[in-house]
Amino acid sequence: MSIASVSYDADLHTEISRGLNLLFTILFMFTQPNITLNDGNVIPQLGFGVWQVPSSDTAEVVGTAISTGYRSIDTAAIYGNEVGVGTAIAANSLRRTELFITTKLWNDRHTTAHRAFDESLKRLKLDYLDLYLIHWPKPRQNAYIEAWKALVKLKEEGKAKSIGVSNFTVSHLKRIVDATGVVPSVNQIELHPGFQQEELTAYHAEHGIITESWSPLGQGTLLESASLKALGQKHGKTPAQVIIRWHLDRGYIVIPKSVTPSRIRENFDVFDLSLDADDLAKIAALDRKDGRIGPDPQTADF
Ligand code: NAD
Questions:
Q1: Which ligand 1 atom is nearest residue 263's CA?
Q2: Could you point out which of 1, 120, 133, 297 has its C-alpha 20 to 30 Å from the C-alpha of 174?
Q3: Spans of all domains in the chain
């Protein structure tokens, strides 16, 4: 076999795998829901979170998520695994536009956001981000308005297609909108059946901000709930699948995390599940005002 025909075969192989990936993406587009953000960009509603995924495992874990069908990946500079996410993206033959990549500005970079953004982009081996978030407001530092102005600029420059925040309360949201006139597309907040954040999500809905749920499974703690187990049994699904379906039905973006391939697949197998009014009432009853697992954004100062 000549060298020319070997390289022809390799090209053919790449083209076939690109074609198959495109076919899968089109199929997934019909099976998995998307949300249109307030700037017109579209995000897959079910994404994959990588907090606490060890950097050495991240490329493989994210590769499993992508081949399962996830098209949206949520990382952050502070997770220390952007390089692994970038490796998984580069190793895949999907077109860049078929993936939706989010990362976040860490708290000590509020006044140096442009440089922090470029550093993240370099680690991810990308030339733009789909969504860039301010990770925490850190109110005592009082620099999140300056950070938001930088993100507005990054969007104007086309480097971040969409911009948003994370862990912002109503008062933090009001301050950044008053200062710039720009409403974040997303607020990523702790939200799960044990902590449903009715007031904040109502404010989001009123102002065109999409709610994105972090720790959507309550970091796994909710999976032992008797009432979620019973709902799982009723539908022939697991408690994790019931919870993810609930987030989707509420109109939230949801980004469950797992490093276990069977769970990564399980968490994506939720599109044939339909919860009824009785199920929703049972899940509504799990809400607790003191159900927060993570830090309180009003006081968090790390
Ligand atoms: P999660 O609610 O997604 O729970 C993850 C844990 O649940 C896993 O470690 C695993 O132990 C368990 N689990 C997952 N799927 C399971 C299944 N099918 N069966 C049994 N157990 C299962 O928690 P999380 O990782 O804290 O949150 C998800 C993502 O949200 C993170 O990876 C990250 O991307 C994001 N996040 C953002 C912030 C923020 O401040 N913006 C904070 C925390 C998390």
A1: 18
A2: 120
A3: 1-31, 35-284
